Amino acid sequence: MLPITDFLSCTDVLDEFDSLSYHQTTHAKTYVTGLAAGRSKTVTGIAREVLPAGSDRALNKFITEYDWDEDQLNHERLEELQKHGETRWSQDGYIVIDDSVIQRTGKSLPGAGEFYDHSEGEPVWGQNLVYAFYTDEKTSYPLAFRQYEKADDEDEEDEQETKYDLAREIITELEEEVGVPADTYLFDAWFAHDSGLIEHVESHGKDWIGPLRGNRQVTYANKERRVDALEECIDKEEREVDGET
């Protein structure tokens, strides 16, 4: 593969971000260019293939040691997306709350551990991210994330943030700092069950859609009853969505 002699044009917007210094911006443009166009996605490989990089030591220092505000950088990224019609968010969009296990091999990676992976059906070694994703009929992109880390011992478990805690933190950030206008949150039954997420979403005046377990107590027609008992109380009508009943 021929070396990459210049940064990709999509990285030009980084020049306008206040969260990065001049040299940090150069490293950021190098890293993004390497991830998007390079054959190797490692720091060493990117420094070798993207000629403006300088050295892999400087690029690695930028990733691991430089003092820059990643939250501010992410907020500036989201602000940039709102300047373009094809990526501008709206009230009709949805915010998806979920978590995902990214399989890894390194044993000393931050937060790495053994997590149950639903897609694999078994525990795997990796990093566990809780994240929010924006989506509508024209675009989709990540909004924010938090890394979930297991407590090292039982004494730390009481102080350990749960995935529910991290999800609530993300919602607070999106509502009070970022100001995402989407009216509706989506999450699965795991996040809907005893997480406090429903109350937290509603406290910001937003709607939510998610499956509830059959034994959850809800209030319907001024009476409290189990979800699985609602079938006897509501009118049902078959609907066809995308060719499925």
Word description of this protein:
With 245 residues, this protein is an alpha/beta fold. It has 3 domains: 1-68; 87-211, Nucleotidyltransferase, domain 5, CATH 3.30.420; 215-245, no CATH class. The protein contains 8 helices and 8 strands. It has helices spanning 22-37, 43-49, 56-64, 70-81, 154-157, 163-178, 189-192, 197-203, and strands spanning 94-103, 113-117, 122-135, 140-148, 184-186, 207-209, 217-220, 223-226. Strands 1, 2, 3, 4, 5 and 6 form a 6-stranded mixed sheet that branches. Strands 7-8 form a two-stranded antiparallel sheet. The longest helix is centred in the N-terminal third of the chain and has 16 residues, at 22-37. It is globular, with a radius of gyration of 22 Å. The protein starts with 21 loop residues before the first helix and ends in a 19-residue tail after the last strand.
The 3D shape can be described as globular
- The CATH topology of the largest domain: Nucleotidyltransferase, domain 5
* Beta strands, count: 8
- In N-to-C order, the SSE pattern is HHHHEEEEHHEHHEEE
Named CATH architecture of the largest domain: 2-Layer Sandwich
| Arithmetic mean of pLDDT | 91
Count of helical regions: 8
Strand content: 15-25%
CATH class of the largest domain: Alpha Beta
Question: Would you spell out the secondary-structure blueprint of this structure?
Answer:
Elements: H1 22-37, H2 43-49, H3 56-64, H4 70-81, E1 94-103, E2 113-117, E3 122-135, E4 140-148, H5 154-157, H6 163-178, E5 184-186, H7 189-192, H8 197-203, E6 207-209, E7 217-220, E8 223-226
Parallel strand pairs: 1-5, 5-6
Antiparallel strand pairs: 1-3, 2-3, 3-4, 7-8
Helix pairs in contact: 1-2, 2-3
